[in-house]
Amino acid sequence: MERIVNAIVIEKLTKTYASGWLGRPPFVALSGLSLTVERGEIFGFLGPNGAGKTTTLKIILGLVRATSGTAMLLGKPAGDVETRRKVGFLPESPYFYDYLTAEEFLGFYGQLAGLARTEIAPRISALLELVGLVDARSRQLRKFSKGMLQRIGLAQALIHDPELVILDEPMTGLDPVGRKQVRDLILSLRDRGKTVFFSTHILPDVEMICDRVGVVMKGRLLASGRVEDLLRQGHTQSVEIVCQDFNAEDSATVRSYATRILQQGRQCLVVLPNADLVDRLVTEIRQRGGRLLSVTPHKASLEDLFFPSPRHTTSDVPTEVLSGRQN
Amino acid sequence: MAAIGVIALNTFRESLRDKILYNLLLFAGLLIGLSVLLADLSIMEHHKIVADMGLAAINLTGVIIAMFVGISLVNKEIDRRTVYTIMARPISRTCFILGKYAGLALTLLVNVAIMLAVFLITLSLYHVPIGVAIFQAVGLIFMELLVVTAIALFFSTFSSSMLSAILTLGMYVIGHLTTDLKGIAGKSPSETANMIMNGLYYLSPNLEAFNIKGQAAMGISVSPDYLVLASLYGFAYAAVLVTGACVIFQRRDF
């Protein structure tokens, strides 16, 4: 039997929504998007709000039809009913049947997934334990907080032990502890050989747990690959050098290249835009009788690479000398 | 097929936990009770008034439930995005629609049964003879409710709750006036008016076919043939609408 290597294969996916008004151009949600998610990996689907992440997820689940292009899920075309037996899904900001108790809710989704009643009961107990809602098992969902709803939503996505788990903004509405729990849960799913495809606009989460990422913007895929590879492509690493007994203003290297200088008493902090100048400056510090205290390379984040804001664009920041005082 | 049952039972459970339904049942009980009061105030035909009003109360309450639950059956699922997690499961869209319809039909069946029980108790307390005609009338009321539910479900697959309510109510009113439409069509000098009236006559459900309340109140039963034909007509009409709802729902983006 042929083993399907890729969990998700998307090719040239386009989705256009009619504007509904005469004279107004149609809204293009996705424009020729292609990406592949391999089996057993955690794939982060990144992009700002409105980038086309949710539309992509809806198309691969068969909730929305693509205008053109194809999407394959576990080797079958998107929308194939039987394939969904192997897929778990948590939508963004989920609203569930609030008249059901947590136990009834999971039972309902277990039945929909085709599980036998004898299988459902132990799965419910295990999942309530996993998402920390054992005490709320008999409580109606209308009495749940937003974070609890997110967690019970995750449990419903996992009730049938799916091969592929698709999560749309799973960290939304969670406090830092809840976010860590979700991250740990996603990592444990990968450890059990599951594939996790999740969308988010919270980049640090992605950098922490994803094997690979796809960055989408305005319906187009900007980049896709391993997080380290993408970060390496950026060439925007900065280096922070702290030294003592060294007057930065006397240095031509610092005056020409440093993006930031902070002189505080005997100590001086210099930020260089890349690692190439480090050796030159370190030599100069020593030659002038200064003492090197630390050299800290700053890795560019995915946010710096793909969603730069003025705060993060170091090249635009003028060199400044803050002599002795920092506000 | 099992998925239809799961969806249907969940729809039924949703109705059971909805307080509005209990208020409507209370309203029906009060109407049935009021019939006794009105009968006491009237000079003659006490028994007929009690039976007539009781049947009308069952019909009215049933239609209100069928319309207002029916129009939100699909819309609510889409608006609240519960449809996302359902449709991400291994069930077809057709199963979803059939399950929702079956769930509401079950809700109506239970409600009509409760109202019938209250009605029968009222009749026996008031010493009104309980004949087969009463059961026939309630049976056909249920058939009418199945058709009204199918109309509401059909409209709710492609329009907003408000528009579905207006369209369903319109169809319900026209459905009780189809005989008049045919009469107008025959008398109008305008060819266009004739065509419109004829079109409405053939497209609209003939809901009067299910209305035997008047004669049932007088203890006059209808033939079994009539019951079978009216029921077949109701099932066929509902089936066409539910099929239409499935076809439209199949093509929807969420």
Descriptive report:
The complex is a heterodimer of chains A (327) and B (254). Chain A is an alpha/beta fold. Chain A has helices at residues 53-60, 102-112, 117-130, 146-158, 176-191, 203-209, 227-233, 252-257, 278-287, 302-306, and strands at residues 6-17, 27-38, 42-46, 68-73, 76-77, 87-90, 164-168, 195-200, 212-217, 220-226, 238-244, 260-264, 267-272, 291-298, 321-323. Chain A has ten helices and 15 strands. In chain A, the strands form three sheets. Chain A has a six-stranded mixed β-sheet with strand order 6-7-8-3-9-10, sandwiched between helices. In chain A, α2 packs across α3 and α3 (117-130) crosses α4. The termini of chain A are far apart. The model of chain A is unreliable at 310-327 (pLDDT under 50). By secondary structure, chain B is an all-alpha fold. Chain B contains twelve helices and no strands. The longest helix of chain B has 33 residues, at 93-125. The two termini of chain B are 23 Å apart. The chains are: A alpha/beta (327), B mainly alpha (254). The A-B interface holds A 58, 61-65, 81-85, 87-91, 93-97, 99-100, 104, 108-109, 111-114, 153, 156-157, 166 and B 2-3, 6-7, 10, 13-14, 17-18, 80-92, 253-254.
Mind sketching the topology for me?
The complex is a heterodimer of chains A (327) and B (254).
Chain A: E1 6-17, E2 27-38, E3 42-46, H1 53-60, E4 68-73, E5 76-77, E6 87-90, H2 102-112, H3 117-130, H4 146-158, E7 164-168, H5 176-191, E8 195-200, H6 203-209, E9 212-217, E10 220-226, H7 227-233, E11 238-244, H8 252-257, E12 260-264, E13 267-272, H9 278-287, E14 291-298, H10 302-306, E15 321-323
Chain B: H1 2-16, H2 19-41, H3 46-70, H4 72-79, H5 82-87, H6 93-125, H7 132-156, H8 161-175, H9 178-187, H10 191-203, H11 213-217, H12 224-250
The poorly predicted ranges of chain B are: none
Distance between the termini of chain B: 23 Å
Q: Measured on Cα atoms, how large is the radius of gyration of chain A? A: 25 Å
The spatial strand order of the largest sheet of chain A comes to 6-7-8-3-9-10
Secondary-structure class of chain B: mainly alpha
Approximate shape of chain B: globular
Counting DSSP H or I runs of 4 or more residues, the number of helices of chain B is 12
Main sheet of chain A? 6 strands, mixed
Question: Given the C-alpha coordinates, what overall shape of chain A results?
Answer: elongated
Structural class of chain A: alpha/beta
Portion in helices of chain B: over 70%
